[in-house]
Amino acid sequence: MNTPRLAVLRAATAMTTLALCGIAQVASAQDALDLDAITVTANRGEATDLTRTGSSVAVITQEDLKNSGTTRLADYLTTLPGLSLSGNGGLGTSTNLRIRGADGRYIGVYIDGIDVNDPASTQVSFDFGSLTTQGISRIEILKGAQSALYGADAIAGVVNITTNQATKPGLSQGYAAEYGSYNTAKLAYNLSYLGARGSFAATLSHVRTDGFSVADENDGNTEADGHEATRLSFSGDYELTETVTIGGAAFWATAETEVDEYSGGPTDGLIPDDMSDRDQVGLRAFARIDAGAIRHEFSAQYYQIDRRFSGTKKGVPYSDPSKGQRWSLAYQGQTELSVATLTFGADATREAFRNTGDDGRNDIFGLWAQSDWHLGDQLEMVTVLRHDDHSTFGGKTTGRVSLGWLPQPDLTLRAAIGTGFRAPSPYELYSSTYGNPDLSPETSTSYELGVEKRLGESRLNATLFRTEITDLIAYDRTTSAYDQTTGTSWMQGVELSAETPLTERIGLTAAYTWTDSQEAGTGKRLARVPLHDIALGLTAEVTPDLTSALTLRHVAGVTEKTGDMPDYTTVDLSLRYALSTQTEVYLRVENLFDEEYQTSLGYGTSDRAAYFGVRSNF
């Protein structure tokens, strides 16, 4: 492992040097950086200049997603510093996103304001396996402890996804179609309207593929495992009066995925395949009242997921259905003080799960307040305090302080510290087979220090981070139940990233993350967390109508409970050609050099694959 790791470090050094050289070359030729980029996630709805916030925030636009050509959203997210994934096969299979080494149970995921973490999963989290980039207009990723602002479970961060929105007056439409390897086909249609007093947007998408073997074909598993999914989303708002706006969002999604059996590892097993079926519904309604000194928002939301695993287990047919539900009511108020913006709120949430022979629920009521202190033109400090009352564990108080300082117009220094907690999921508590009613909440403390340097249109970022989790909950194979790990587990590391135009037509992005970790009790590094993670991207305007994008990703130092995983490098290529101002065609090649690799032990990944598509807006 020494030689590959040395190569990784050399590659990281070369990457950073290249980025710095690019910045130096263009700094003198570029005008001041456009600072209009904002975040609404970092400070819970208050638009904040990204250069002033003390939080680590990544903003992804629809154009970013188009340039990449990526189908599955999680694959794009791994090109960002601090984000990695592990998956159990191709499109539709279980996919776990990590932020700074912490897995999905520590990440809050929202789609149009709807909390979509699965209440029926073993540890409440969102499965990114079926979510494609189609129909997404914007993503904000907030890294670091966010429990004080977004409630329990947001120990590692928040992923806030916004679907297509109306952007120009009148009626607009769009479509996309794609076909490629593994007999994969995608179709999508979107419709939006923007009027004087209201707007709406809707997107319908469908994808199907014959896929490849979930159990790695290089281990002798040759039977393909397919996937088919349909998704419909809607959002809109309407101004009832000059001071009152109502609106909402909704989505429906259904998916069927073939999966392989597991017997000491994934295997083709018996034919026909095991099946994983899931149906999801999400609803949210809100009313905003902007009158007087305080702006108010009242909202209600509902989320339901029905999952069913079926097939054969040790030669015996089985069917394992489960249902997860979440109901939430929330209030948020905001007012301007002389030196600060005060935002405050309350929320009540019920999470419930039910499967064969088991059921359970948790209720949480929370109160929170945030002060965004405007300490002159150069200093911004945000303090957050939250108290949650859990139906099983009683009261828990969390807090966060972040500081953003601009000693110079082109330099931002950041610092943040936050605490959090994760209550055991209903499944961890109430499952008759694997549950443990004696579990206690996990608690956490997170720290980060960062710097951002801007030179012309170039940016260079560096962040040090550490997260400590006490009383981590994990599955104990000796007792066949979930149990508490005594002591403190931790994840720490450094993120480096750069973006710069190398010429008027060529742009470079680069990211490197080093993450060390240790699990309490065993002293071992956490499974499936890369020690080194490198992403390098080049975009080029070949002609006024033709653009290309190349993405390289190198992952090294991943461990499983049974030992080390091989390092790997993948390269993706995409080309976009504009037929008109409204229509373009594109070609995407994934895994250009046909790398054989795994992100989870025993599970397959795509060979070289090519896809051709067309999309248009009118």
UniProtKB/TrEMBL annotation:
It comes from Pseudooceanicola spongiae. It is found in: Cell outer membrane. This is TonB-dependent receptor. One of its GO terms (biological process) is cobalamin transport. Its main location: membrane. Coiled coil: none annotated. Keywords: Cell outer membrane, Ion transport, Membrane, Receptor, Signal, TonB box, Transmembrane, Transmembrane beta strand, Transport. Belongs to the TonB-dependent receptor family.
